[in-house]
Amino acid sequence: MELRFDIEKEELPIFMAESDEQFQLLDDGMVQLEREGENPDLLQSLFRAAHTLKGAAGMIGHKRMVALTHALETAMDGLRKNSYPVSTSLIDLCLEATDALRNLRGEILTLQPAPVDVDGLVARFNAFVAQATGAAAAPAAETKQTVQAVVPTAASAEAASQTVFKVEAEISPTSIASAARAFQLVLALQDVGVIQTQSPTQAEIDSAKPVQKFSATFQSSQTYEEIYKLLDMVSEVNKLTLQQVSGPDTLEKPTAPLPALDKPAEVVETARVPQAAAPAVPAGASAAAAPKVALEKTVRTSVERLDNLMNLVGELITDRNRLYQLRNSLDARFRNDDHVETLSETVNHIGRITDQLQKEVMSIRMLPVGNVFSKFPRMVRDLANKFGKKVDLVIEGEDTEMDRSVIEEINDPLIHTLRNAVDHGIERPEVRLAAGKPERARVLLAARYEQGRIIITVEDDGKGIDGEKIKASAVQKGFLSEAEAAVMSEDEAVNLIFASGFSTASTLSDISGRGVGLDIVRNNIQRLNGSIMVETWKGQGTRFQLSLPLTLAIVPTLLVRVREMTMAIPLVTVLETLRIAKSDIQTVNARPVIILRKKVLPLVSLASTFELEKEDYSARQHYVVVVGSGKLQMGLMVDRLLGQEEVVVKSLGSLIGEVHGIASAAILGDGQVILIVDVQDLFRMSGLQHAMTG
Q1: pTM for this model (two decimals)
Q2: What DSSP assignment string belongs to 10-77?
């Protein structure tokens, strides 16, 4: 059976974006509510989210979503009124309802019924509320009647004891769905009382014609403050007045209207744009006296346009680099020539404008990592409950921004890392208490900037990683021989957890113990030209540090000469550069090494690695680029150091395919195509992968 909803094609993205935001608010808020207990502001936010979802669903005629959100909203209302306390069973039910609402939202795209037992969930909400308050549970039939009761009625058995109010509202002229906002006002009024008159009528609202002004009279037993607060939840309402017309202690209570604001309804990539809150207006003050609030205006655009703009900026950077080369060449040939000096000034100006344009485009593409982090409190809570553990997830630095192309790729690595922390790292509560630790474990998820990189930390206060246990498991499963395990350091043993198929889990589960997870983390991070480092303290905890580039489109590099070829080494992997003499080179296990600050640094010749020419170690001097991956370092031997340059990354393409040791290509300003070295792959190719993964 194909479903039908009253929503236009151009309205669908707005509905999906708004519902996604409310779902995320419910997920985050429920987990926080369970941890903190009664919090009036948080409860109000959750009630508002459920109410907004109900209004949006009612606007398009999605009755099953309306029924379930109404039950969820009722449960939140009971918490707001202190009818019953916050409990794990209620939070479980609310989160289950949120998941069900996501599935119901999918019906709008597929137009096919989702396998969601709405009546069963509503009945469970009714039973919970009835048991918690001591009232009789409402039958399922009443729930269905509630869903269909979207048309206002004037009849009310308790009219004599209720107060009559009048509400007037002005909807923002920039609203794309002004009729939907009017319908949300109708739903809000139906929640608090019985509508007597309204303008526009329900039929006019259903026609989806633009609505600029809304007014209604209604009867309600709710207080003036409660009604106003509920109406104020509806977004894109610029001006709102509420008056008491008749009833006990009749008194006209004009509310100072909200200042007229152009509230932006559109955002780029559904990222939340912070809006300044409307200032409080003192009693008796006029609306004109309210200070003006400056709000950031935004415009919706497609991701494809941002990608195209980034590509054009990349081409501009290539041309800028070419202009720099031409300027230097002309300046060397015609020094002190007036035209050359004028040209040089113009090129410098174009360079500054290009740099500024690049920064602006990059800032447009940047999104806070909180867009990814916000999913994990719910996930960690569910995992902890499944394993009988008590875990608090602490998030820091969620406002740290990075390119959307990188954000899209870090979701899976973070999922696996957090799962590993909860499953393998955190002990059960009784074990923690016996060890003198708090019953509730702490997992930290943090992001920060460091030297042009994003550092994401996942740290737990669990049992840490036992290197001896790792080595024993590796020997048992054939990853190592006993002789290799005997000489392996603690750090090398810990890095075995990234080996494909390696696991120390004694039992299999759908979360871990199948030999997958951390190898995916390492591979995905390295594919982003990043690195991962592990630090662990036995009995105290483990820290994973993921080092990632800000963007994948434009990469700062160190240009080097290898025989007749120019190559680029990503600058984020470069630790330092050296010039060494022939006498500095020694041999360990038939490998060339040098002693750098009392530590052995293995040397790798790029010429030999890429089979350009065998390295001549008898030369009087060599240039070495020291690169790092986690705790590992090696020296790349090159012929010359050419300098630093930002390059635009170009894919090698399907015709060339994957080339070991090469990440991608770039075009220099003179049109020369160069190759960008894959430092992570070089560690494996050079035989140092044993130190990385065993």
Answers
A1: 0.61
A2: GGHHHHHHHHHHHHHHHHHHHHHHHHH---HHHHHHHHHHHHHHHHHHHHHT-HHHHHHHHHHHHHHH
